[in-house]
Amino acid sequence: MIKRESLQIKAWMVLKGISQADIGRELGIPRQNVCAFIKGNRESRKVLNYLIGKGCPKEYLAIPDETHVLDEVAA
């Protein structure tokens, strides 16, 4: 299990008007996968890059290799 700041991620999403269902629809994945990522039960490069791209504070996300993720976002 990854130690993510799930409550902070959810609070940030509420402030931005983003729901887990919105993320799932946009990325073409089940909402349950988004939920599992936020809770730290699952890894998803798609969800991680989505949240970073929308401006979620990286300290909430427990990013293992920030440089690699940022390279993918820039591409």
Report how far the terminal alpha carbons are from each other: 28 Å
Q: Low-confidence parts lasting 5 or more residues at pLDDT below 50?
A: none
Radius of gyration: 11 Å
Supply the helix-strand structural class.
mainly alpha
Strand elements, count: 0
What's the rounded overall pLDDT mean? Answer: 87
Largest sheet: none
Note the run of SSEs as H and E.
Answer: HHHHH
* Principal-axis shape: globular
Indicate the percent of residues in helices. Answer: 55-70%
Individual helix count? 5
Strand content range = under 5%
What's the SSE blueprint?
Layout: H1 6-16, H2 20-27, H3 31-39, H4 45-54, H5 66-74
Please give a quick description of this structure.
The protein has helices at residues 6-16, 20-27, 31-39, 45-54, 66-74. With 75 residues, it is mostly helical.
How would you describe this protein?
The protein has 75 residues and is mainly alpha-helical. Helix content is 63%, strand content 0%. It is built from five helices and no strands. It has helices at 6-16, 20-27, 31-39, 45-54, 66-74. Helix 2 (20-27) crosses helix 3 (31-39) and helix 4 crosses helix 5 (66-74). The longest helix has 11 residues, at 6-16. It is globular. It starts with 5 loop residues before the first helix and ends with a helix.
